[in-house]
Structures are given as C-alpha cells and as structure tokens.
Amino acid sequence: MPDNPAPEKPVSDHPALRWVRMIFVDVFGGTHAVVLPAARYHQTLTEGVLFDGSSLEGRARHLERDMVLLADPASLTVLGQGVARVSCAVLDDRRRPWLGDPRTALGSIIDTLGDLAEEYRAAAELEFYLLDEDGRPIDRGDYYGDVEGPGMLVARAAADRLQSGGVEVVSAHLEAGPGQYELDLAPLGTLALADALVLAKQVVRHEAAARGLRATFMARPFSGLPGSGLHLHQQVGDRLFDARGELSAEGRAFVAGQLGHARGLCAFAAPNVNSYRRLHSGPEAPSHVVWGHANRAALVRLSVAYDGRPAAEVRLPDPAANPYLLLGALVASGADGIDQEAFLDAPFDEDLGGFDPAETTSAQLHPLPRDLDEALDALLADDVLVDAFDSRLLSRLVDGRRAEAEAYRAHVTSWEIDRYLEEA
Description:
This protein is an alpha+beta fold. The chain is built from 13 helices and 14 strands.
C-alpha cells in the first residue's frame, strides 16, 4: 500500500484532460509510459493496461511477457496542455503484484517494515547540469549566484510545474559547477518521494528541451568539475532525535544500520560506472563510511531540514539512482540497525581530503567501493539487502550492471588516447 495515501484524484475534475501517461520505471531507473485517452483512465483503475513486461529489464531486455499496469490514483498529476501522468504498479499475467517491478518492490518493503517505513520521510536535493546544443555548460554562475539566465528560467519553470502538480519545491538555486543547478523538494513519504523524483527529472528535461537545452543527471559529466548528488534529509517521525536535536538511541542505531550496509547500498545509490567518478572525488562527495556534523564528505551528516527540524542527511546517492530501489534499501538498512541495536561509532568531522589513516589510531576508516563491480559484490554479500528485494529483480539489476561494467572495461577512452597514443 502507498505510504500516507491520498484520496483519489478523479480526471473528471480536469475536463480539459485528453491524455493520461501511465508511468512505470525499469530496474535501472529508466522511465517508460503507455499513453491512453483520458476517457479510458477510470477503466485502468480496475482492469489495468496490458503491456510488454520485458521493458522492465531496461537494456537487458530479452523476452516478451504480457503484464499489466495498474494506476495508483493518488499519484495522478496534471502536467498541463491536456496531459496528466499517473504512477503505476505492475501485475503479472495472473494479476498478482510483481516484485520485479521497482515500485512494487518498495511497496512490499513498506508493508514488511510497518510503522517505521510509514513514518519515514525525506526531503531531497536534486542536482543536475544544463548544457547547450554542443554539450557545454550553459553558464558560469557562482554557487548560489544571483543569475537570471536561461538556466534559472528552466529551474523556475520546472519548479512551477512540480508545484502545480502537488510536489512542493522549497527552493531552486545555482550549484557549485558551471551550468549546475539544484531543486529542493519538501519532505515526502517513501513512495510519494520516489514518484516525485521520477517526475522532477522528467519535468526538468522537458523544460530544458523546450528552450533548446539538455539536462543531465549524470553523477559526474565533466572531469575537474563537481559531481551531482541526490542528498536526502531523512526523518522518521520523532524517533531519530531527542528534544535537544541530538540523535536518540533509536536514531543512533538507524544511522549505524545505514553505515553498516553502506558498501552494499552503493549498488543502489551509485548505480552505474560514472557514479564512481563522483565518489572519492572531493570534499562534497563521500569516500569513506563515516558520519559527522560539519563534515560535508561524511556519508551521513546531521542536518537541519527546511522546517527547522533535525534530519539525518545521507549524501551517498547521485541522481542516476532508481529512487524506488534506493529508498527501499535505505529504509531496510536503517530498520536493520534498529532491530540489531547497532552501535554507532563517534562522529568524524576531520577533513578527509587531508587525513592519512596510517598516521592515527583515533578512527578506523572503511572506504566505499571504488567501482561498480566492487559495489555489486558488496550488495550480493549483504544478506539484509538481498532479502529485502525479489531475487528476479536483483538478478536483472546485477546482470545488467555487470554487462555495463564489462562494456566499459573494453572501451578505449579519450584519456587513454591523449595519454598513450604517442607515448606507447
């Protein structure tokens, strides 16, 4: 069941609607749609829509399989110009929930974990680059710069469309890289936040394309420039923090659980080859399994949400992550920490960039995976994360990502050409 379910939003409230996009997401986070006349929408709430389920395998697509899309009426969002979208669950050919579908998998985790998953909420910082037709950043704005150029027009237009669709945008601003921007989404429950992140990426791309630009959510599209993150400011009701704003006993165990599963979490949070260009690359991205207060390279940092409440900010993910799998893994990891009463080490607020583990015994640092294969190995070795998801989903995910890593290893990069063409 969806967390914090909203009442159904009937299309009859929007007589100008002509089309409804039935949205679903494959295991790699790619968005797909079946577009229906609005007059057929109510029929889909009970009967669903047949589609080829092999599309859920993304690039790993092999066999056709008849499956059913069932709309979640609480997620209906009017996009304008006679079009709406609705997020869908996937049923198998016998009309049973299919756990190979990422959205269905997240719903199953919510049902399994009960109150903790229902109370989980997170605000999101979604970072992205805007590029011109030649693939170059569109501006040279400064961090939080006061620039009224095409990039800010895209960010504001995207925020307006999201707000009109019921997704609250707290702020929009320039980020540290040239042509890099950020949209900040207000806290939402797990399923609603995953839906909102899928929608936000679609809307940003649409608004950029309408102005002759391209939006990219790659973790690190340019050498020497900052990567893009997807920071999540987590809260679980009033469980994680005490009255002073410090981590409670339950909160310490929750954070310890996420740190304890961090290496396996990388397979969801940093999901592709390029993700590891961002990790280990500087003070804004984590490289080791630590938490802290002021340390912006910490994997989890205690932060203050936009409403002034304390939050546990997880800084590991990048925007390429499949939000359904990411949020399911984060909640499952934190819940396991609570179940196991996991111990949380002392915070680490030193500058990791200048820290030499060989010179001190004050902290034992565990590095994050250096590449995708190492992350996939860590995932498969993590019984909690493996048990949280259906085996068919994980096998498709791991096999597909292994194939990507193998294809990358066989590819000759421009760096190699520049470095070795004349030298060898």
